[in-house]
Design goal:
Blueprint: H1 3-15, H2 24-44, H3 47-64, H4 72-94, H5 97-113, H6 119-135, H7 142-165, H8 172-194, H9 203-211, E1 213-214, H10 216-221, H11 229-244, H12 255-280, H13 288-295, H14 298-302, H15 305-324, H16 338-344, H17 366-371, H18 376-381, E2 388-389, H19 393-407, H20 413-434, H21 442-450, H22 455-483, H23 487-504, H24 509-526, H25 535-555, H26 564-587, H27 594-619, H28 630-651, H29 663-684, H30 692-703, H31 713-745
Parallel strand pairs: 1-2
Domain Integral membrane bound transporter: 429-551
Coiled coil: 716-743
Membrane topology: Multi-pass membrane protein
C-alpha cells in the first residue's frame, strides 16, 4: 500500500463515528463525581486548585470506562493516585527546564513501556503523562502543588466510591461478554445449516474466558448464572461443527441432513434464549418448537454413528447450559439421560479446577447450588469449572513490572514505541517552549495522547485529535464569547463537556476529542486563563504534536508486514501441537489428560488472534510485502485455519476413559507434531514445506500397523483432512514460488 493510500485509510478510520450502545447512567455518574470534586476543591482551596484537581477526577472516570474485567474502583484509584504523584514530582522539577525535560523523557518512556502490561495500563499511564504537562503549570508553590496532588488522589477516591455506592449494571460487562459468546455460537449454528464447513471466530469465547478471571473479592460475589455457562459454551462449539460436517457427521443430503438442519436451528434458538437470559439476569424462555426438536425420539432412529453421538452430546450440553444460566421457566424441557451425561461430561482443565472439599461432597440440586455463591455451583450444573484467578491491585503492579522487564529489549515492538514516544515528547516540549505561542505543553501532550505501538492507530488518532480539536475549539469559543461565563458557570460547562465525553467515548475518537477540547478550554478558563490564551495556541500546537508523532513512526517504524511469515509459522506450530494432542488422546484414552488438549487449544487461539491482528495492521501499512505475496500468505493462512478446524472436529469425538487404546494414533501424532514444527521453521525461512513423511506414516497406519489395529472411522477421515490442509498450505506457497521463478527466468522483452 502506498503512503498516500495508507494515510487516506487511517485518516478515514480516525474520523469515523461508530454507532454504539450509549450508557447514560454511567456517564452521569462520572460527571457527578467530577462536579463533586470541583465544588469541594473550589470551596476549600479556590478556583486554581479546583481546575487542577478536576483533572484527577476526570481521568479517574475515564479509567473506569476502559475495557478491563478488574473491579472499576481499583482503576479509578490507580489513575488518580498516579496522576497526583506525577503532578507533584513534575512541579518540583518544573523550575529547572533540563531536569524537567529529563523527568518528562523518563516518565514518558516508562508510560510507553507500560503497554506491555496491556492496553488499559498503557492508556492510563500515557494519559496521565499528557495531563501532567498541563497540571504542573497550575500550582504556584510547593504547598499548592501538594494540594493539587492530594486533590487529584481525592478525585480518584471519589470516582471509586461512586462506582461502589451507585453501581450501574453490576457485572453488566461480564454478562454481556458471556451472552455475546453464546449468541456467537447461535449465529454459528445457523450458518452451519447453509455452509457445513463455515468458519467460527473464537474471539467471543476468548473474551468470555478473559472475563472469567476474577479477583478474590469478585469470586465471592459473582452471580451464580455466570459460573458454568462459559465452560459449556466452549464444548458446544466443536459439537456443533462435528454434527454439521459431512466428513465426520451427517450425510450431505437426505433425511439425516434434514434432521441436522432442524437440530442446528433448534440449538441456535436455545442459545439465543440463554444469551438473552444471562444478559438481563432472568430465567430463560425456551421456544417450544426448539425444545420439541430435541425431545422427539426420531433423532435416534434417523442419525447413526458419529452424527448420533454428536446430537446426543449437544442435547446434554444444551440442557446443562440452560441450568447453569439459572434454568428455564417451567424447566428446561430438554431431554437428558443421566447415563448419557456421565459419558459425555468431560473433566475440567487442571488449570481451572481444584479438588472438591469433603464438606461439599455429595449430590446437590442445581437450584441449591445457585442459592450458594461460589465456584461449586459450576460442578452442580455440570461445567466443573472454578473461577480463574486474577491478581489484586498489588499483584497487577507486580505483573506490570514483570511484563515491562520482558519487553525491555531493542527488538521489542513495545520498546520501540517507548523510545519513539519519549523522544517525541521531549522534542515537542522543546519546540513548544521555543515557539512564541505560549502554552507549549500542548504539542507534547497531543503527541503522547495519539501515539500507539502500531502505525494505524497512531495515524488515525492523530487525524481524529486534530479534527476533534477544531470542532471542540470552535464550539467552546462560541459559547465563551456569547455567555462570558464566570467561575461557577465555567465549571458547570466543564462538567457538561466531560459528561458528553463519557457518553460518546465509545463512538469514536473524533467525538471524544471534541468534548475533551471543550472541557480543557472551560476548565482552564475557570482557573483564570482567558480563552484567547488557549484557543489559537492549542490548534497550532496540537497540529505540531500530531505531525511529530507521524514523523516519528515514519523515521523509526516498526512495521508488522515483515513479521507476517513468523506470525503464520507460530500459528502453524500451535495448531500442529493442538491437533497432535487431540490425536494422542485416541491413542491412550485412559492415560491421556484432557487438560493438555485444552492448553494446546488456548495457545493455538492466541496465535490465531496474533496472526489476525498482525494481518489487519499490515493491510494499512505503507510497506511492500517481502517474500511470499499477500495472496499466497492469505491462502496459506486459510490452510492453517482448516488445520485447527479439523482438530476441533476430532476433539468433539474424543473417547472416554473406557475406550480401547489406539497405538497407531500415537505414531501418527508424533509424526504430525514433528512435521509441523519443522514446517514452521521452513515457513519462517521462506521455504516450502513437504509432507512425504507424514503421508507415509498415515498410509502405513491405515493399511496395517504392527499392533494389528489400523486407523479407521473418525480418526482416519480426520487424519486425511489434516494432511489435506498441510498440502494446501504447501500448494499456496509453492505456486507463489513457481510464479517468481517464471518471472525471473523470462527474457527481458525490452530491446537492448
Amino acid at each position: 500500500m502506498s503512503w498516500l493510500r495508507a494515510l487516506k485509510e487511517t485518516g478515514r478510520s480516525g474520523l469515523t463515528v461508530e454507532r454504539k450502545r450509549l450508557e447514560p447512567l454511567v456517564a452521569a455518574r462520572g460527571a457527578v463525581g467530577l462536579a463533586l470534586v470541583i465544588a469541594f476543591s473550589q470551596w476549600a482551596f479556590g478556583p486554581a486548585v479546583a481546575a487542577g484537581s478536576a483533572f484527577g477526577a476526570f481521568q479517574a472516570a475515564i479509567a473506569t470506562f476502559q475495557r478491563s474485567w478488574r473491579p472499576r474502583p481499583e482503576l479509578a484509584i490507580a489513575s488518580g493516585t498516579s496522576l497526583g504523584v506525577s503532578t507533584f514530582l513534575g512541579y518540583l522539577t518544573g523550575a529547572h527546564h533540563l531536569l524537567f525535560l529529563a523527568l518528562l523523557a523518563v516518565w514518558t518512556f516508562l508510560a510507553g513501556l507500560s503497554w506491555a502490561a496491556g492496553p488499559t495500563v498503557g492508556f492510563i499511564a500515557s494519559t496521565n503523562v499528557a495531563i501532567m504537562l498541563v497540571t504542573v503549570t497550575l500550582p504556584t508553590s510547593v504547598a499548592q502543588a501538594a494540594a493539587h496532588g492530594a486533590m487529584m488522589i481525592f478525585g480518584g477516591l471519589v470516582q471509586a466510591a461512586l462506582v461502589v455506592l451507585l453501581p450501574v449494571r453490576r457485572w453488566g460487562a461480564h454478562r454481556d461478554v458471556l451472552a455475546d459468546a453464546l449468541a456467537a455460537e447461535a449465529h454459528y449454528a445457523r450458518r452451519l445449516r447453509d455452509d457445513p464447513v463455515a468458519p467460527f471466530d473464537p474471539q467471543p469465547l476468548m473474551q468470555a474466558r478473559d472475563a472469567a478471571a476474577l479477583t478474590s473479592r469478585q469470586a465471592r460475589t459473582r452471580p451464580a448464572e455466570l459460573h458454568g455457562a462459559r465452560g459449556l459454551a466452549e464444548r458446544i462449539r466443536p459439537v456443533l461443527a462435528a454434527l454439521a460436517d459431512p466428513a465426520v457427521g451427517a450425510a450431505e443430503s437426505g433425511r439425516q441432513r434434514e434432521r441436522v438442519h432442524e437440530l442446528l436451528g433448534a440449538a441456535a434458538a436455545i442459545l439465543d434464549a440463554v444469551a438473552a437470559a444471562i444478559r438481563h439476569g432472568r430465567r430463560a424462555e425456551l421456544p417450544a418448537n426448539a425444545v420439541a426438536a430435541f425431545a422427539t425420539p426420531d433423532t435416534g432412529t434417523i442419525l447413526t454413528g458419529p452424527a448420533r453421538r454428536a446430537a446426543t452430546r449437544l442435547s446434554t450440553l444444551l440442557h446443562d447450559v440452560v441450568e447453569a444460566a439459572g434454568g428455564a421457566k417451567g424447566g428446561s424441557g430438554l431431554p437428558v439421560r443421566e447415563t448419557a451425561r456421565a459419558a459425555e461430561t468431560e473433566p475440567p482443565p487442571a488449570a481451572e479446577t481444584g479438588p472438591r472439599p469433603a464438606a461439599e461432597a455429595g449430590p446437590r440440586s442445581a437450584a441449591e447450588a445457585r442459592r450458594r455463591p461460589g465456584a461449586d455451583a459450576d460442578r452442580a450444573t455440570g461445567s466443573g469449572q472454578r473461577p480463574l484467578r486474577r491478581p489484586g491491585l498489588f499483584g497487577l503492579l507486580s505483573g506490570a513490572v514483570q511484563a515491562m522487564r520482558r519487553e525491555a529489549r531493542l527488538g521489542s515492538q513495545v520498546m520501540r514505541h517507548a523510545l519513539r514516544v519519549a523522544v517525541v515528547a521531549a522534542a515537542g516540549y522543546v519546540l513548544g517552549a521555543a515557539l512564541p505561542l505560549g502554552h507549549g505543553y500542548w504539542a507534547p501532550m497531543a503527541a503522547v495522547m495519539v501515539m500507539r505501538p502500531d502505525f494505524s492507530q497512531t495515524y488515525s488518532r492523530a487525524v481524529a485529535r486534530f479534527g476533534g480539536t477544531l470542532v471542540g475549539v470552535t464550539l467552546a469559543t462560541g459559547v465563551v464569547r456569547l455567555a462570558v461565563p464566570d467561575t461557577s458557570l465555567a465549571g458547570a460547562l466543564a462538567v457538561l463537556s466531560a459528561g458528553l465525553m463519557y457518553l460518546l467515548l465509545r463512538t469514536g475518537q473524533l467525538a471524544a476529542q471534541a468534548c475533551i477540547t471543550a472541557y480543557a478550554v472551560f476548565l482552564l478558563g475557570m482557573g483564570g486563563e482567558q480563552w484567547t490564551q488557549t484557543v489559537p495556541q492549542r490548534v497550532l500546537l496540537t497540529l505540531l504534536g500530531g505531525v511529530l508523532a507521524m514523523l516519528a513512526y515514519a523515521l523509526y517504524p516498526d512495521w508488522e508486514t515483515p513479521r507476517l511469515p513468523g506470525r503464520l509459522a507460530d500459528w502453524l506450530s500451535t495448531n500442529g501441537r493442538y491437533a497432535a494432542a487431540v490425536v494422542s488422546h485416541f491413542a491412550d484414552p485412559a492415560g491421556s489428560d484432557r487438560a493438555q488438549v485444552r492448553a494446546a487449544l488456548l495457545t493455538a487461539r492466541d496465535a490465531r488472534i496474533a496472526w489476525r491482528e498482525a494481518s489487519a495492521r499490515a493491510r494499512t501499512e505503507p510497506v511492500r510485502q517481502r517474500g511470499p505475496s499477500r495472496a499466497a500468505v492469505d491462502g496459506a493462512a486459510r490452510a492453517v485455519g482448516q488445520l485447527g478446524r479439523v482438530a476441533m472436529l476430532m476433539e468433539a469425538h474424543l473417547p472416554d476413559g473406557g475406550t480401547a487404546p489406539w497405538p497407531a494414533a500415537a505414531r501418527f501424532a508424533t509424526a504430525f507434531r514433528d512435521a509441523t514444527e519443522r514446517a514452521a521453521k521452513e515457513v519462517r525461512e521462506g521455504r516450502v514445506p513437504h509432507w512425504e513423511d507424514v503421508r507415509a506414516v498415515l498410509e502405513a497406519e491405515a493399511s496395517g500397523p504392527p499392533d494389528g489395529r489400523p486407523l479407521d472411522g473418525v480418526v482416519l477421515s480426520s487424519a486425511r483432512l489434516l494432511l489435506d490442509a498441510l498440502e494446501e498450505l504447501s500448494r499456496a506457497l509453492r505456486d507463489e514460488a513457481a510464479e517468481k521463478d517464471e518471472r525471473t527466468a523470462a527474457p527481458d522483452p525490452r530491446p537492448s
